[in-house]
Amino acid sequence: AKARGRNGYRFYAPSMTGEGVERLRLETFLRRSIEKNEIFLNYQPQVEIDTGRLIGVEALVRWNHPELGLVPPVRFIPLAEDSGFINQLGKWVLFEACRQMVRWQDAGLRVPKIAVNLSVKQFERGSIVNMVAEILKETGLEPERLQLEVTESVIMNTGDAMVFINDLHSIGVGLAIDDFGTGYSSLAYLKQLPVQTLKIDRSFITDISSDANDEAIAIAIIQLGKSMNLSVIAEGVETEEQAAFLLRHGCNQAQGYRYGRPALPQELIERWRD
Ligand code: C2E
Ligand code: CA
Ligand code: CA
Ligand code: CA
């Protein structure tokens, strides 16, 4: 590789580590992933604990690269965020998720609601309300059946996030606070935001029956939700014991391997139709 450019600047800093090279390679691949049809969505069921009824699904993005294989989102989402690709990716995900809701409906499976993750970076270029409205119009999905998931950091770190979130509320889409309890406290913001749902982070659920602190936090979130008239859903529910605990403390909504792993659209039809 060429070491110096025309004016003597090094193109490749000698300090560039193997990790840096790998990152660059991933980023280059990632940029073409959509056009190469390597991106697809998995959907994970959200259920009512006592009845086992399907109340919604969460869309989770997947990247399958021919050489690298399945790259986990924790590896490529941060890259997409740093490179700005997240805006294109986020739009693709939203469109595909909304379109899938209509396809399921046509195939005889009515999924009440779809949850889609938004990155903090998608709020930095201005309001995304037009993009969302356009996708809803194009796919024909009712706004009430779309729930956007944002983390506390979106609310706390983005200057205009409150305005943008209110914009989204004004067109009828729902909003959930993801990984609730793990970020900065957003308790003061909660009462001003048009939020409908809190998602208890998996880290509080895993050891819920053995760790007194996790137990206390989960109970506190459930109570908070109740008193603010918000719905509360627990993520990462894997066992009967965790589900029973949640139900006992007034949380009747869950998502986790106990009810289904993230899966392809057809698998959801087979599992949940009728
Ligand atoms: P998240 O939004 O908190 O999503 C839940 C993650 O927990 C998913 O991981 C899911 O597969 C996993 N999970 C669900 N149930 C269980 C369980 O019972 N046990 C365990 N151990 N894990 C469970 P995944 O799909 O690897 O996604 C990781 C993160 O990547 C997501 O966390 C989300 O922050 C991000 N992500 C995924 N899809 C998108 C997307 O379309 N856009 C954006 N911006 N971020 C996304
Ligand atoms: Ca989520
Ligand atoms: Ca989450
Ligand atoms: Ca989480």
UniProtKB/TrEMBL annotation:
Signal peptide: none annotated. The chain holds residues 765 to 1038 of 1038 of the full protein. Residues 23-274 form the EAL domain. This is EAL domain-containing protein. It comes from Janthinobacterium fluminis.
